[in-house]
Design a protein that fits this description.
Elements: E1 5-10, H1 14-26, E2 31-37, H2 40-47, E3 55-58, H3 62-65, H4 70-73, E4 80-84, H5 90-95, E5 100-103, H6 108-129, E6 149-154, E7 157-162, E8 166-172, E9 175-180, E10 185-188, H7 192-198, E11 204-206, E12 211-214, E13 218-224, E14 228-233, E15 242-243, H8 248-255
Length: 259
Amino acid sequence: MGRTLKIIIVEDDALATATLIKGLKASGVRCKIVCHLDSVATALSFFATSPDYDLVFLDPDCDSGKGLSLLTTASLNKPIIFCAQTDEYALTAFHYNCMDYLVKPLKQKRLLSALKKYKMVEQTWRNALDLPSGTTGITPFSVKHYKKRFLVRTNGDFQLIGIGNIVCFYSENGRSFLVEASGKQFVIDFTLERLEELLDPELFFRINRKVTVSIGAIETIEDYVNNRLKVQLHSKVPIDPVVSRKRVKAFKNWLRGVV
């Protein structure tokens, strides 16, 4: 790799962190540890500053198992590599486009493989856009740019809400609403039809005519009347999140990662 790779480590295990840093130094890759974050609170504060980085190594069990929540609460808009104690988060990693999954104790060969994969993905993407090597500030996962945040009005002021903090969108009485992780609702100027064009289809799915849900906000799914499915979200919403019968098959494929 020609340029210096800027890395963020989210890990609360000192030994695991030391092993990862040692492996990175031994990899021959020019890299810089921009920041080491050992709690979810510090990570949320850090990522809220829109830091300049290229790659995140994330332990989903960091901070007593809270590390996984960063996928839905922080603006992680760059490639992520999971570093976990077991493979139990593999499906979650797939849903969030995590680039690779390393199981502790870290093996140098697997680390090198993950770094090589990053280089291949990055270079392919840059060639597709004809961008010069070293261009920063954009995500190397998709040529198409999906909406990353929404500007909403609250009490006369404006507020930015990142994609990771959104539970769902719904329409009612001719207006569209955004439901944030805290349960707060905001009126937005987009129809659900327009949102289907703006949102990443791997992260959001329109389950019926009136509701679009975030995959990161789904807690449980259960059978419902008339061959439909009922979705339980992290936050309560004022409209039933029920998957319409004609969308059940597509919804299941979406959950499996087939979009």
